[in-house]
Amino acid sequence: MYDYVVVGAGIVGLATAYHIKQMDPGSTVLVIDKEDSVGAGDTAKSAAAFRAAFTNRTNLRLAKGAISFYLKVQSEGFNLAALKVGYLFVVDSRTKPTIKEGVKVAASEGVEVEEVSQDRLEKSLGMRVSLSGSEEAEMLGVSDVEGGYLFREAGVLDVEKLVDYYYLKLKSMGVEFALGARVREFVVWPRSPLGIEGEPFPWEDLRVKGVRLADGRDVEARKKVVSALGAWSPGLLNPVGLDSFSRPKKRQLFVIKAEGQLGSLLRASGLNDLGVMPFTILPKGVYVRPNPLENTFWVGMSDELGRPFALEENPQPEERFYTYGILPVLGTYLPQFQLRYPGAAWAGHYDMSFDGLPIVYEPYESDLVIAAGTSGSGVMKGDSIGRVAAALAIGKDVVELGNGAEFEVRQLGLEGRSVERELLVI
Question: Residue 239 domain-assigned?
Fold first, then answer.
């Protein structure tokens, strides 16, 4: 029996447990995960980047708060390998209106964005900006680059170090962990059981009292259970009549060594103070994430239409997806990548919500807080989502984010959320 039971030891679960203990120091907290170590699911398979760059103001505020917290952690001596290299959105005539929406929202929230000319893209990155007349460009449906927008409050970090930070802090605060413990089901039980055979009955006042593990043991929560299961949310919530309003979608990353011309690209100058290529998003959804500490690039692509909503227990990268999906587009804009193939790759899931915003709510006054729908930006908003989930579990209406800004918990619920769908899901 614990006061709070958090199911899921990814970034959201760890941040939630951390902030529960911060807000309710005397409470007992247990974090459960099916993996043998924390952050070993989709958190470990993310692009490990952060950006204050969204078209939805709520998402932007969540990201700003989390980024401020991460950079503060690093400034106080816990190295997260966080590098503010920026996010560079390269635009053509089709993608420019969407990115400009993000620029407008950023400006309204005081986030610095710099417009980048075609000449600078050519000079700094060796990018091909004039594609008209190219047979390959015509086949791919790509058009001339019109420039770019560089969001400064953005960069990359080491997600393993971030996970270690929360884990070490939680251990020092007395939080317990049950790792390698698979949850079989959430346990629904009457608040005041009658001791009658056949309980629970549908007319009783029911709550989620805890979880049943695969080995048959029950773990109970006196106050709240928190579901921070990410892509695994529907599989455990749906059987007890609850909904995360999110679904898993596969995402893949491919690692390219920065050798030869790619070494010069990795150390591109003129776009940030670090002399590193920014995290760069090309038209058609291909993105390039610099990893200067390992002298590599991580490359991925958003493939929404045609990619099914499905959970794979052990997702594997698809060589064909890189060769025929990513490489033609990547090599067209950045010729340095032509005929370059990955030396490593991995795959995970995005936990996609219906509008691109996280979902944090307690259905039916069930004593179960659901935190889901991170939609590909769980790491960069993880601390803020954890604060909101912790506040809801404890019964607070307003929470302070990592940058000191106040945030209403209801904004991530089903009734108080923004009507604007997020357009920058990368």
Answer: yes
Q: Which amino acid is at 337?
A: F
How many domains does the chain contain in total?
2
Domain that holds residue 93: 83-155+248-349
The tens place of each residue's pLDDT in the chain, 426 residues long, gives: 999 999 999 999 999 999 999 999 999 999 999 999 999 999 999 999 999 999 999 999 999 999 999 999 999 999 999 999 999 999 999 999 999 999 999 999 999 999 999 999 999 999 999 998 888 888 999 999 999 999 999 999 999 999 999 999 999 999 999 999 999 999 999 999 999 999 999 999 999 999 999 999 999 999 999 999 999 999 999 999 999 999 999 999 999 999 999 999 999 999 999 999 999 999 999 999 999 999 999 999 998 889 999 999 999 999 999 999 999 999 999 999 999 999 999 999 999 999 999 999 999 999 999 999 999 999 999 999 999 999 999 999 999 999 999 999 999 999 999 889 999 999
Domain boundary (300, 324, 349) is at 349
Residue 234 lies in a domain: yes
**Domain assignment present for 110:** yes
pTM across the whole model: 0.97
- Whether 63 is in a domain gets the answer no
